[in-house]
Amino acid sequence: MTRVFATRASAGCTRGRSAVRGGVEPLPKTTECSGLVAWHRQRLGLSTAKSESGAILILALVFILVIAISVLGLLTFGGNGLKNAAGLQGQRGIEFAAEGATNAAIQSVRYSFNAYNVGSTPTDCLPGGTTMPIPEGSVSYQMEVDCAGTLNVAPTPVQYTRVVTFYACQTIQVLPCTQNDAIVTATVNFQDLSATGVDACYDLLDTGTCGEGMVISSWNVRYIDS
């Protein structure tokens, strides 16, 4: 801290000395105390201004750094969110396509006589072909559905006469579609008897009572990592 020693006269402040480190600094000549006070205020003001400007600069740098880190975090979070949303959309699109193809196959099998009980390997049961394009948004998925079942001849009491399991896959997978590869696996019980117990569901020419009743006993969807 600077200390000032000044001689005072009846006319005012005539001369003084300022004790500073390394020697004595003469004060400027003045005829009034107001000039001496103004000189000291000017020196103190310059020192205070420099100190305040340095503090403001540090605060500004800290503020800019905090904003930059916040923006970087938001960009990273937003990018991950968009990526996850796109992946989820693709996953759900494949699942919806598999469910749509399975429903189409169920309706086709319901009103046919086929129980798909020949051999142990599932066979194609889509209507009109081995694959079916299912549009989901801007993408069209090629799906296949294969079936395997059992046939109950003249069940007693009257109950389900065909039990068919449906396996839905994308066509990029190896044929046939089995439970290990299926996106959707559904088991359906078909009642092929009339209300009076007549069975008229034998072959291509006798399908009158095919699919009189139907119950979906199970429906499983496998998670697809797209």
Provide the helix percentage. Answer: 25-40%
Q: Into how many domains do the coordinates divide?
A: 2
Strand content: 25-35%
> What is the 3D shape?
rod-shaped
Q: Report the span from N to C terminus.
A: 73 Å
Largest sheet, described in full? 6 strands, antiparallel
Mean pLDDT level: 75
Oligomer: single chain
The helix-and-strand class reads alpha+beta
What is the count of DSSP helices, taking H or I runs of 4+ residues? 1
- How many extended strands? 11
Low-confidence stretches: 1-12, 14-20
H/E topology pattern: EEEHEEEEEEEE
What can you tell me about this protein's structure?
The structure is a single chain. The chain is α+β, with helices and mostly antiparallel strands and 226 residues long. It has two domains: 3-52; 92-221, no CATH class. It has one helix spanning 33-110, and strands spanning 3-9, 12-20, 23-26, 123-124, 132-136, 139-151, 162-170, 184-191, 201-203, 206-207, 213-221. The strands form three sheets. Strands 4, 5, 6, 7, 8 and 11 form a six-stranded antiparallel β-sheet that branches. It has a three-stranded antiparallel β-sheet with strand order 1-2-3, with no helix packed on it. The longest helix is centred in the first third of the chain and has 78 residues, at 33-110.
